[in-house]
C-alpha cells in the first residue's frame, strides 16, 4: 500500500490552488500503482524529495515507457479538459502570477475583477495562480482594490513612483509619467512584485502579459492590467495578506 498523503493535497503546504480535473480517477490510478505522468512547469519541487520509494509518479517520462494512465499538471496555465475524456487529468496552480493594476480614483471592484478575469482568460492563465495585486503606492487606499483583495484573499503590494520609474517596460507612457511621476504602473508594479525588488537595481524581468487596457460597457473607469511571473510561489501566512 502506498504511504502518501495523496495527490489531492499535494500542493496544500505550498499554498497552491487546486484546479479542475477528475481528482477521483487520478487518485485511483495512483492507488493502483499505475504510471501517472507529472508535468511541473512552475512552483516548488521539494515535494518530490518526500515521495515514497514505491510511488508510481513519473516526473521525467522515458521514451520507451507505455502511455501513462493519468496526468497531473502543475502550472499557471488554465487547461480545458474534455468532460467526456477517458484519460483522467488534474491540475494544481502554484500562485506565481503577480497582476499589476493601474486605475483611476473611484474604480469599482467589479471593473477591476472583470478586467483581470478577461486578461487571464484571453492569455489562458488560471486565476488560481494569481499571487496578488501590485500597483502604485498612492492606490493603497483605493476602495475597489481593497475590496477585491480582501474578497479574493490576495495581498496588495504598493510601490513608490521612484522605484517604478526605474523599471524597464515595453510600453511606457510619457503622459502617465507627467501625471504621477512614473511612465508605467501596471507593468512596472507587476515586475517589481514578481521579483521582490526593494531597490531600483536592474534585473531581467519576467513580464508575461504587457499592459492591457480594459473598459467595461456601462461602467465608469479604465483599468490597465499586466502580469509577471515570480520564480517562487506566494504562500499566504496566517494573519498576513
Automatic annotation (TrEMBL):
Residues 5-94 form the Cobalamin biosynthesis central region domain. Pfam families: CbiG_C, CbiG_mid. InterPro entries: CbiG_mid, CobE/GbiG_C, CobE/GbiG_C_sf, GbiG_N_sf, Precorrin_MeTrfase. GO terms for biological process: cobalamin biosynthetic process. Residues 97-228 form the CobE/GbiG C-terminal domain. This is Cobalamin biosynthesis protein CbiG. It comes from Oscillatoria acuminata PCC 6304.
Amino acid at each position: 500500500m502506498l504511504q502518501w498523503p495523496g495527490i489531492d493535497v499535494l500542493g496544500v503546504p505550498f499554498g497552491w490552488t487546486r484546479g479542475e480535473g477528475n481528482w477521483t480517477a487520478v487518485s485511483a490510478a495512483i492507488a493502483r500503482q499505475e504510471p501517472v505522468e507529472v508535468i511541473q512547469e512552475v512552483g516548488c519541487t521539494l515535494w518530490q524529495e518526500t515521495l515514497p520509494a514505491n510511488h508510481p509518479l513519473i516526473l521525467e517520462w522515458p521514451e520507451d515507457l507505455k502511455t501513462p494512465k493519468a496526468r497531473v499538471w502543475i502550472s499557471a496555465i488554465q487547461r480545458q479538459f474534455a468532460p467526456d475524456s477517458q484519460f483522467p487529468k488534474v491540475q494544481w496552480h502554484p500562485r506565481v502570477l503577480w497582476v499589476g493594476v493601474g486605475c483611476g480614483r473611484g474604480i469599482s471592484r467589479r471593473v477591476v475583477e472583470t478586467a483581470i478575469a478577461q486578461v487571464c482568460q484571453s492569455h489562458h492563465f488560471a486565476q488560481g495562480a494569481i499571487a496578488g495585486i501590485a500597483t502604485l503606492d498612492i492606490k493603497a487606499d483605493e476602495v475597489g482594490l481593497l475590496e477585491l483583495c480582501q474578497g479574493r484573499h490576495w495581498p496588495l503590494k504598493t510601490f513608490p513612483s521612484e522605484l517604478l520609474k526605474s523599471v524597464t517596460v515595453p510600453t511606457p507612457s510619457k503622459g502617465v509619467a507627467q501625471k504621477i511621476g512614473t511612465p508605467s504602473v501596471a507593468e512596472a508594479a507587476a515586475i517589481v512584485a514578481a521579483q521582490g525588488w526593494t531597490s531600483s537595481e536592474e534585473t531581467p524581468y519576467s513580464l508575461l502579459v504587457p499592459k492591457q487596457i480594459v473598459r467595461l460597457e456601462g461602467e465608469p473607469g479604465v483599468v490597465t492590467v499586466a502580469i509577471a511571473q515570480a520564480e517562487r510561489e506566494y504562500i499566504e501566512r496566517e494573519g498576513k495578506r
